[in-house]
C-alpha cells in the first residue's frame, strides 16, 4: 500500500555532502565535504596540510592530533562537517610566521624525535596539554587538585600518554616539554 511516503532508497555509496567554511591555521577555506569525511582526510587530501599523520586511523596513536579551539583532538576520529564554526590549528600553524613555536625549538634542541612521524601530533598535543595545565586542569596524577598542576616528568608523561612514539624518544620529548613548561 502506498500512503504517499517517499520510499526512495539512497545507495550507501552515494555521498551526502555539506558546504562549510573551515578555519585552519587562521585561513578560511570554503569547502564541500562528504559528511563521512574525517578531519584528517580533509586536511591531508583536500587542503594539502600533511603535518598530521595517519598512524592507526583508530585514535590510539595520536599521530593525527590537532587543536580545535585550542583543545586536543584526534583528527582521524573527528568528522569535518562538525567543525564549520571552530578554529583548527595543525602543526603547520603552531609557528608565528617564520618564528617557530617554543615547543618546536625545544624539540629540536632536545633531539625529541627520531623518525619524526609522530612529531606533529606530539607537538600539537604538547601545546594543548600546556594550555590545559595553565588553565588549572588536573590530571589523574595531579597530587593537589586545588592548585595549578606542577608539570614535572610524571605529570607530563601522564598528560601525553595518548601520543605514541614508535622510536621511543619519550625521554627527550618529556625533556623538551619540561623546558617550555612554566
TrEMBL record:
Gene3D superfamilies per record: 3.10.20.30, [2Fe-2S]-binding domain
Highest rank taxon of the organism: Bacteria
Every 2Fe-2S ferredoxin-type domain range: 18-94
UniProt-listed Pfam families: Fer2 (PF00111), Fer2_2 (PF01799)
Keyword Protein transport attributed: no
UniProt keyword Heme, yes or no: no
Signal peptide (residue range): none
Stated name of the protein: Xanthine dehydrogenase YagT iron-sulfur-binding subunit
Species of provenance: Streptosporangium album
